[in-house]
Amino acid sequence: MATKERKNPKLHITEQPITLSNWHQHVNWVNTSLILIVPLGGCVAAFYTKLQAATAAWAVVYYFWTALGITAGYHRLWAHRSYEANCRRLPLRIFLACAGGGAVQGSIRWWSSKHRAHHRWTDTAKDPYSVMKGAWYAHFMWMVLKQNPKNKGRTEISDLNEDPVVVWQHRNYGSVILFFGMLFPMIIAGLGWGDWKGGLVYAGILRFLFVQQATFCVNSLAHWLGEQPFDDRNSPRDHVITALVTCGEGYHNFHHEFPSDYRNAIEWWQYDPTKWSIWTWKQLGVASNLKQFRANEIEKGRVQQLQKKVDQKRAKLDWGTPLGQLPVVDWDDFVAEAQNGKALVAIAGVVHDVSGFIKEHPGGKMLISSAIGKDATAMFNGGVYMHTNAAHNLLSSMRVGVIRGGGEVEIWRHHNTQKGKA
Ligand SMILES: [Zn+2]
Ligand SMILES: [Zn+2]
């Protein structure tokens, strides 16, 4: 390995195999500290820290608060612009930037740019958290390991660079996570009920560990578990478990199809507290222009996917030889062959070989035998019995030829008779 490294000094570390001597160079230590080392430290500290009821309740409240910062702020507002919280709505943007910062998942600018790349290059090498590299990679390892800059897909983020809240949060990101990730939850618990240590460990560190893992599930679980009602060409899936874990981000197949829709769940009974929050902010006048795809467009996608599934099932079944592939036979030849002992019946211009079916015919041997060498279209279609759809399908599987002209053609009969006379 060392030889290879020397041979290719310009080879990026991600292009070299992980070995005992270079593994630490593969690790992104800033990310790893924030999503692994500090949270693990919090888990250890929890063994030595009593959990008070008030702190537990505050941790849950702050969990949802900071999770919304990610789902309603980072994701639906900044990454997808699915609604507006413009100049007059500044307080909401500041609130979401601080709350999302408290979730310790990178700055809005970094997060949204990665997420736009994920939507643009889903499941390809340029997808920063492609599930094609494994669910564990999509969940976590893409941040723990350094990424190859060659795979970086460029995304348009000029709108983010023009947003002063985004720029402020990006520039002061260290202070933002320190304060909103740890100090703020600690101060509330400390000043509120004297639990400074519990505030830091439970409402601070363990709470952001849970928010991080919940968000990461959108990249792993939502690309791995569930249904694909809108499109199955890529990996995103819909599942209620993912929705429950991620504040409503679990209807991910819908989301990848309609990314600028402010909703993830389109049915009223589906769990999407992020959507409910955005809707409430609209009623309060702090959010506006909530984007929604027309129900007609959404249904078109659903019907097309249903059709695709039906077509796939249909293709696996035996529907009989297609008419275009059957030999064309003259009426007289059909009659002659039937007279020579072949159990041929003509129905709707198609010759059927019923020899293997005579004994099994539910209407009895007599009826079916009486149709041999004849045009039994009327008999089959209600003249004697209005056959079922299943009977039509079964009949199709007995096709052996198509009659020229569709049946016994009067004018050819005259022609043939005259030929016979001559
Ligand atoms: Zn996705
Ligand atoms: Zn998205």
Please summarize what this structure is.
This protein has 2 domains: about 1-305, no CATH class; about 325-420, Cytochrome b5-like heme/steroid binding domain (Flavocytochrome B2, Chain A, domain 1, Roll), CATH 3.10.120. It is built from 20 helices and 4 strands. It has helices spanning about 1-5, 25, 30-45, 55-80, 90-100, 110-120, 135-145, 160, 165-170, 175-195, 195-220, 240-245, 250-255, 275-285, 295-315, 330-340, 365-370, 375-380, 390-395, 410-420, and strands at about 330, 345, 350-355, 400-405.
Commentary on this structure:
With 422 residues, the chain is mainly alpha-helical. It has two domains: 2-305, no CATH class; 323-421, Flavocytochrome B2, Chain A, domain 1. Helices cover 55% and strands 4% of the residues. The chain has 20 helices and four strands. It has helices at residues 2-7, 23-26, 29-46, 53-79, 90-101, 108-120, 135-144, 158-161, 164-171, 173-193, 196-219, 240-245, 252-257, 273-283, 295-315, 331-339, 365-370, 377-380, 389-396, 410-421; strands at 328-329, 344-347, 350-353, 399-403. Strands 1-4-3-2 form a four-stranded mixed beta sheet. Helix 4 (53-79) runs parallel beside helix 11 and helix 7 (135-144) packs across helix 11 (196-219). The termini are far apart. Bound molecules: zinc ion (ZN) (2 copies). One zinc ion is lined by residues 118, 223, 236, 252, 256.
